[in-house]
């Protein structure tokens, strides 16, 4: 069986679909803090990743061969509730790593983020290894989490694998608490209002990835032979970088009357300014054949087509 913890989230929702397709819905156990909006076609458990007793009972019940831990507090919400974000992101991870070792789980997936980079990290083509001084609780919790994943791999032989996702763009779930989520909201409002007021400045360039590519890349990493993987903290990964202005221009190719304006002074601007503008993901390409298939134009078209329905 495969267990997904945090299956209601932006990544969890889509990973659940992909893993059910691959392994059969009866073999994929989804779990989250509350039931999903659409009832799960397979087994579902109410879980709090900080409740180790409840978590252990789920491991006992399903004896998982793989565990995907997607439950986390993202960057913007994390700055409003720093201690809760640290507690959930780190102690949730440690609970899962401990139980994965105890129950001899063969593979664990845990998402990191380009938020592990900070103001002194190289801004363009940020490499796999460099100075990392994240100044958000989300970012520092992901940086510490990466170190814990590497520690459990080296000390206990746990096959835990991780990806530093850039901003993820998708249409299946409502955006939740991130800094890059302007790039999701913009589509909803372009269609519903014909305009959008962006909380990041026009020239804020950030690395992004379309969810379809993120999911395929995650499955690719999880299927790679363990001896191909030389990074056990977390792999840099990206699709393409763009600014709000560039994104708006591409949307205008489909909705010529679309108007984008800007609201400055939002706390998320400082978060975005601390992150890279573009990412070097050559290690993922070399070790496990990573290659994105969507570019900006293809992503914009797919988002608008799906949101229109
Ligand atoms: C956030 N979407 O904005 C997440 C992600 C790189 C950004 O980690 O917090």
From TrEMBL:
Kindly give the InterPro entries that the UniProt entry links to this protein.
Epimerase_deHydtase, NAD(P)-bd_dom_sf, NAD(P)_epim/dehydratase
Span of domain NAD-dependent epimerase/dehydratase = 2-230
Bilayer-spanning residue ranges: none
* Pfam families tied to this protein: Epimerase
Instruction: Give the UniProt family note.
Output: Belongs to the NAD(P)-dependent epimerase/dehydratase family.
Indicate what this protein is called per its UniProt record: NAD-dependent epimerase/dehydratase family protein
Q: What organism does the record attribute this protein to?
A: Olivibacter ginsenosidimutans
């Amino acid at each position: 069986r495969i267990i997904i913890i945090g299956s209601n989230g932006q990544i969890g929702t889509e990973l659940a679909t992909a893993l059910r397709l691959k392994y059969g819905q009866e073999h994929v156990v989804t779990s989250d803090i509350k039931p999903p909006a659409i009832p799960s076609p397979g087994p579902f458990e109410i879980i709090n990743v900080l409740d180790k007793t409840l978590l252990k009972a789920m491991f006992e019940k399903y004896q998982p061969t793989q565990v995907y831990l997607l439950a986390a507090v993202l960057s913007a919400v994390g700055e409003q509730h720093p201690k809760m974000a640290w507690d959930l992101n780190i102690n949730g991870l440690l609970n899962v790593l401990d139980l994965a070792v105890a129950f001899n789980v063969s593979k664990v997936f845990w998402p990191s983020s380009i938020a592990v980079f900070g103001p002194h990290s190289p801004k363009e083509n940020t490499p796999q290894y460099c100075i990392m001084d994240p100044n958000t609780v989300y970012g520092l919790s992901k940086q510490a989490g990466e170190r814990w994943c590497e520690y459990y791999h080296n000390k206990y032989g746990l096959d835990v694998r991780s990806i530093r996702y850039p901003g993820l763009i998708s249409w299946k779930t409502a955006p939740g608490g991130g800094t890059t989520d302007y790039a999701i909201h913009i589509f909803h409002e372009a269609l519903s209002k014909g305009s959008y007021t962006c909380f990041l400045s026009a020239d804020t360039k950030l690395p992004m990835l379309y969810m379809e590519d993120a999911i395929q890349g995650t499955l690719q990493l999880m299927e790679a032979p363990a001896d191909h993987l030389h990074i056990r903290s977390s792999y840099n990964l990206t699709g393409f970088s763009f600014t709000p202005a560039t994104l708006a221009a591409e949307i205008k190719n489909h909705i010529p009357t679309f108007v984008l304006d800007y609201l400055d002074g939002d706390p998320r601007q400082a978060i975005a300014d601390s992150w890279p503008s573009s990412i070097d993901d050559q290690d993922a390409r070399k070790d496990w054949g990573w290659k994105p298939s969507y570019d900006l134009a293809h992503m914009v078209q797919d988002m608008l087509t799906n949101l229109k329905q």
